């Protein structure tokens, strides 16, 4: 059979792909640093970073070299063997964090799925079988597998998929009393994003996180930080929890971890990990040598003073430019987030216009994301050049001039 002839354009999307996304009208075909080009050769400045993934921009020469070198050695071997890149990467993650054991998977959802399973298994084995309650927060996001979407705090993502896993409760973000009301001896874990990403770039307060740590200690519950979006340099430290000076029991990473190559990790302590045994959990691709070799390089590059301190410098330039824009158009209510995870909260009267604003920006050649309700999200490369930032902000200004 010869495959049917189709035009490789946005119009073909609906005939080919499950209708769960609404991609932009143009199709990117090439990227370099913080710029991407579409099929027509039009160039865009990328503040989306593939949703906080391409932290070193597109086609980084060192990552390309690593990919090419490792691809000539070994792509995949499965977990019936271990491999050098996985061991080296695990060693680095352990050296730089609170953790002493690592599980590798392929997406944020899978890392969280492993975290929730570990928390329940640990508490069921160590304490009693009824200690399986997970507390999470409204508006949180932990991925799209059925367990993670049920733990997530947006029922629109978990309704109509049949009976949900039991033993999951939701509290109000940054409201410690709402947690105190539902936590008890049967709670096995509290899971939280230190900055709610998909929920609208909403940071947790330091006092809230400290109180969660104390509650977890009091009730023998595990504290899980979902740093899928905030980890690996995004906020100017390798992990966001370092800013809070509170350590979790379990940490999950994905997005930036592979710089664009799919990989995720769940980190925990030796004590908690020791409850698991051979065959209790697993994945075919997890710890794949190709992914781990790239991730190792991503960490080598990001975990340097130059890149990490550059995050704050780039943020300052972005804020400066955004203030100029807001002086002219007066449409931002607030700019929030940390490091290069930035949420621009629109004034109420502009919230409905957010997709117009994004589309006008595309037309001018600059790419942003949204988050939550009425929030423009920026999660660009951590090594974005100043000229790219300034040019991108100029294009944003022109886009707004056209539609406002
Ligand atoms: C993106 C994200 C996830 C899900 O990651 P996937 O790789 O899409 O499965 C989970 N948690 C947080 C905080 C995220 O931002």
Automatic annotation (TrEMBL):
Residues reported in the UniProt entry to bind N(2)-acetyl-L-ornithine: 144, 283
Lineage: superkingdom: Bacteria
Pathway(s) served: Amino-acid biosynthesis; L-arginine biosynthesis; N(2)-acetyl-L-ornithine from L-glutamate: step 4/4; Amino-acid biosynthesis; L-lysine biosynthesis via DAP pathway; LL-2,6-diaminopimelate from (S)-tetrahydrodipicolinate (succinylase route): step 2/3
Residues reported to bind pyridoxal 5'-phosphate: 108-109, 141, 226-229, 284
GO biological process terms on file: L-arginine biosynthetic process; lysine biosynthetic process via diaminopimelate
Cellular localization per UniProt: Cytoplasm
A Pfam family this chain is assigned to: Aminotran_3
GO cellular component: cytoplasm
Uppermost EC category: transferase
Residues modified as N6-(pyridoxal phosphate)lysine: 255
Bound cofactor: record note: Binds 1 pyridoxal phosphate per subunit.
EC number(s) given by UniProt: 2.6.1.11, 2.6.1.17
Classification via InterPro entries: Ac/SucOrn_transaminase_bac (IPR017652), AcOrn/SuccOrn_fam (IPR004636), Aminotrans_3 (IPR005814), Aminotrans_3_PPA_site (IPR049704), Class-III_PLP-dep_AT (IPR050103), PyrdxlP-dep_Trfase (IPR015424), PyrdxlP-dep_Trfase_major (IPR015421), PyrdxlP-dep_Trfase_small (IPR015422)
Requisite cofactors: pyridoxal 5'-phosphate
Catalytic activity, as annotated: N(2)-acetyl-L-ornithine + 2-oxoglutarate = N-acetyl-L-glutamate 5-semialdehyde + L-glutamate; N-succinyl-(2S,6S)-2,6-diaminopimelate + 2-oxoglutarate = (S)-2-succinylamino-6-oxoheptanedioate + L-glutamate
UniProt GO molecular function: identical protein binding; N2-acetyl-L-ornithine:2-oxoglutarate 5-aminotransferase activity; pyridoxal phosphate binding; succinyldiaminopimelate transaminase activity
Keywords: Amino-acid biosynthesis, Aminotransferase, Arginine biosynthesis, Cytoplasm, Lysine biosynthesis, Pyridoxal phosphate, Transferase
Quaternary organization: Homodimer.
Task performed by this protein: Involved in both the arginine and lysine biosynthetic pathways.
Family (UniProt): Belongs to the class-III pyridoxal-phosphate-dependent aminotransferase family. ArgD subfamily.
Protein name: Acetylornithine/succinyldiaminopimelate aminotransferase
Organism: Buchnera aphidicola (Melanaphis sacchari)
Gene expressing this chain: argD
